[in-house]
Structure to design on (252 residues):
């Protein structure tokens, strides 16, 4: 039997080199340094970088540098054990108190992905599909990611996904409220009669992930305010624990 020989593919090699550089030099990597590293025109590298950002494998920081994005963590869950462990403890606590389904979500590009879930033990319950990309808006976790994103990125997202100017204005006002209050609601906006409350795990003012509680509106409606207070408090405590375990408020 003949053996196939793997040959280098220039685009694949460049993508891999970009990701490896972002992992090796967090907070330092810029477009000009990538172009120099790969000996390629900035225009060519810029397109690859923007594609990786859109897919969630890179994130662009406020200072223009690039870092590894959350999509890599979804592929390699064990590489982020501290975040997963802290989030799981918070999820377990909330599940015991409310016995509704509790989810852990990441932002992957312009989507939200549920990476972990503890289902309610009640007969009628919500079960989120895991590791599938879903629109950020109007999910409760997605609203949190949008609320804490840069204003320019949030505005661009709303402009692309909400055609009606009045809907965009209403969404922008809601996201401002989410940022002020520290939690987001979804009252049947994604799936009729499924209500959810989410709050972010923050590091340096940026959401690393979100934890949400979801269940049928018949059980959730009268408890929304109490659940919101609890989710916000538990995620705030988890954020402090995460910062303590990592020894910094900045978590890649």
């Amino acid at each position: 039997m003949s053996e196939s020989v793997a040959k280098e593919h220039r685009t694949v090699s460049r993508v891999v080199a970009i990701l490896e550089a972002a992992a090796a030099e967090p907070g330092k990597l810029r477009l000009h340094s990538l172009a120099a590293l790969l000996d390629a025109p900035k225009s060519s590298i810029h397109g690859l970088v923007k594609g990786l950002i859109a897919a969630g494998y890179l994130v662009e920081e406020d200072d223009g540098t690039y870092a590894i994005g959350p999509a890599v963590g979804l592929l390699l869950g064990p590489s982020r054990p501290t975040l997963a462990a802290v989030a799981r403890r918070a999820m377990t606590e909330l599940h015991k108190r409310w016995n509704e389904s509790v989810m852990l979500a990441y932002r992957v590009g312009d989507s939200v992905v549920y990476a972990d879930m503890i289902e309610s033990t009640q007969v009628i319950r919500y079960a989120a599909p895991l590791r599938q990309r879903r629109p950020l808006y109007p999910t409760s976790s997605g609203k949190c990611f949008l609320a804490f994103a840069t204003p320019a990125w949030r505005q661009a997202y709303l402009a692309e996904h909400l055609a009606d100017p009045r809907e965009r204005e209403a969404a922008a006002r809601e996201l401002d409220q989410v940022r002020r209050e520290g939690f987001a609601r979804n009252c049947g906006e994604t799936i009729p009669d499924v209500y959810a409350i989410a709050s972010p795990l923050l590091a340096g003012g940026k959401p690393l992930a979100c934890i949400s509680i979801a269940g049928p509106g018949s059980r959730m409606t009268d408890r929304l305010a109490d659940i919101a207070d609890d989710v916000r408090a538990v995620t705030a405590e988890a954020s402090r624990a995460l910062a303590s375990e990592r020894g910094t408020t900045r978590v890649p």
Q: What stands out?
A: The first helix runs from residue 10 to 24. The two ends are 46 Å apart (CA to CA). The CA atoms of residues 197 and 224 lie 8 Å apart. DSSP finds ten helices and eight strands in the chain.
